[in-house]
Amino acid sequence: MRILLIKMSSMGDIFHTFPAISDIKQHYPDAEIDWVVEDSFSEIVDWHPGVHKVIPINLRRWVKTRSKKHWQEFKDWRNSVRNTTYDYIIDVQGLLKSAIVAKCAKGHGIDGYAKTSAREPVTHWFYKRQHIVDKDQHAVERTRQLVGKALGYTPTPKLNFGINQNFVQVAKNPRKLIFIIGTSWVTKLWATGEWQALTKIAIDAGFSVEIIWGSPEEQAIADQIIEFCPQATRPEHRLSITTIAEKLVEAAGVIGLDTGFSHLAGALETPTIALYGATSPVKVGLIGEHTQNLQITEKLECMPCHKRHCKWLPENSTDTPACMSGIKAEAVWHALQQKLLAHPYNN
After folding, report:
1. According to Swiss-Prot or TrEMBL, what is its membrane topology (predicted)?
2. Which domain holds residue 175?
């Protein structure tokens, strides 16, 4: 059985798809699963042993520039994909762009979400087989159920992200913590002062703290934290995704924001606390007993706004919105300690 999955981005969404790959291999061990993904994330997809072939695509770049050269690159990519005939083509992303990409492949029709289940209902016109999947579920479960309906099985309750075996060589350090301070939106950021307070609590408790950064702005925040707590460290240079994954496996625990690397920590089964404010963790937050999505105790009426800029702050402000500033270091530390106690291998 040859299966093609379409899930091109983003990083967190890709991690959310891994359990569906594990499900397929559990029910059809001989299935060959190919996966179309944005080129920048192909390294991640290749971690799962159930993936037969990673098919990189540069759709973001092609759509952004729309040059003659990139149009030819797209046609060459389409012709390459059509060299294989698939038994099943499954659009697990459920967007117009992913449905169009799915139509480029050759097979026996596309499986996808029904009109009432899709994020973009127009996509149902592209599918030969449409499946009703409850929208009020976590993204991981929606993907697992869609794939199960397409292939004729019911997923088991237990989640298996299936990527830990890539990092068995990494030794666990029971006294090391990783802090993930960066994210794509200003409204998702946590106050530097709270990061400083949390770092001091952790170091006073006998833990080492390493701060992961990915941009000059995040590096500057990391340096402010280290200036406040000189015992904390950060990588000298920006790290590859694989190197960050190794650090997340090594750590006893991780504290991060609504960002792909927090989802990665959860997928690697490291106890992880993720902080949420402007966005909702209900459908796309961390999942699993070893994780917790932490918000302020009394939610504000505007939560979640899902906005890149807080309407209560001046335009272009970099201040921390109230939904995030209300999360205090002591509460985050308490939540992490509860997760560490629940996982004896970290003690």
Report:
1. Peripheral membrane protein
2. 165-346
DSSP assignment of 222-268 = HHHHHHH-TT-B--SSPPPHHHHHHHHHH-SEEEE-SSHHHHHHHHT
Note the pLDDT tens digit of each residue in 75-87: 999 999 999 999 9
SS3 212: strand
Which among 145, 162, 179 is the end of a domain?
A: 162
DSSP class of 198: H
Cα 42–chain centre separation: 14
Helix (H, G, I), strand (E, B) or coil at 277: coil
13 pLDDT tier (thresholds 50, 70, 90)? very high
CATH number assigned to the domain comprising residue 325: 3.40.50.2000
- Among candidate residues 162, 192, 211, the one where a domain is terminated: 162
| Maximum Cα interatomic distance, the chain, rounded to a whole number of Å | 61
The pair of three-digit structure tokens given for residue 283, joined into one six-digit string: 């459908």
Q: Which residue, chain included where needed, has tokens 């959860």?
A: 266
Q: Is 289 exposed, middle or buried (0-12, 13-18, 19+ CB in 10 A)?
A: exposed
**Count of residues making up the chain:** 347
Q: Do both 206 and 284 map to the same domain? A: yes
Q: Supply the pLDDT for residue 133.
A: 98
Reported pTM: 0.92
